[in-house]
Amino acid sequence: MTFVCLTLFPEMIMGGLCHSVIKRAAERGAIDIRCVNIRDFAGNRHNTVDDYPYGGGAGMLIRAQPVYDAYQHARTMLATNARVVYMTPQGRLFNQAEARALATEPELVLLCGHYEGIDERVIEEIVTDEISIGDYVLSGGELAAMVVIDAVARLVPGVINEASRQDESFSGGLLEYPQYTRPAQCLGRCVPSVLLSGHHGNVEDWREAQKRERTRLRRPDLQEGRKP
Ligand code: SAM
Fold first, then answer.
1. Bridge-partner residues for 80, per DSSP?
2. Partner of 4 at 20 to 30 A CA spacing, among 59, 76, 102, 189?
3. 138 CA distance to ligand 1 centroid (A)?
4. CATH for 96
5. Rg (CA), the chain
6. Which residue's C-alpha comes closest to atom 21 of ligand 1?
7. pLDDT tens digit sequence for 117-164
């Protein structure tokens, strides 16, 4: 799967995602993460991409033309008419179901805003989806794009072990069970004895019960709606 980010801070995205699972997946070719720097399309001597908002008000906006030109450049890197996701606090809330849906796409363009946002006209022109990673306001869309890329990429076949995804939180509408590693006793606490019993059936039953109890206590909304 190919991700192309339109951003003013490509080094932030590439630096943030060049680690661990995502880095290895990119090295294996399971995913490809690229950035197009909107500033490269500023179209003026000082490379400025922002301007004052019509009607007044605080802050600056990214101009439409550099974003549109950056997008046209991104299109030359893509084989399909990829969805264009604008990262914005005004978008629909990102969750595991959304990550699963996006992971079926072969390519995705992620548009990262900055300052007070982006001139609405280019959003109307190129954006197919608007996604928020939570009800708070970030300084820029880069962290949000990184969250989306990480969550989506690990659902792309070949990125992580299929088995390790199955029990994960949200995979079946429940949170995951608690887990322990060696030693069996640590910080004055013991591993639950059922996990040391070697009885697979009992371990499975215990884990299933833990999933339900955790979800009931921590996220009752998940069980009620069987949301992702
Ligand atoms: N003025 C905008 C508003 O009130 O809706 C907020 C602009 S914010 C300071 C700058 C950029 O950060 C946005 O254009 C967007 O790309 C990104 N951003 C901020 N919060 C976000 C969130 N919760 N989810 C996704 N992107 C976000």
1. none
2. 59
3. 5
4. 3.40.1280.10
5. 21
6. 89
7. 999 999 999 999 999 999 999 999 999 999 999 999 999 999 999 888
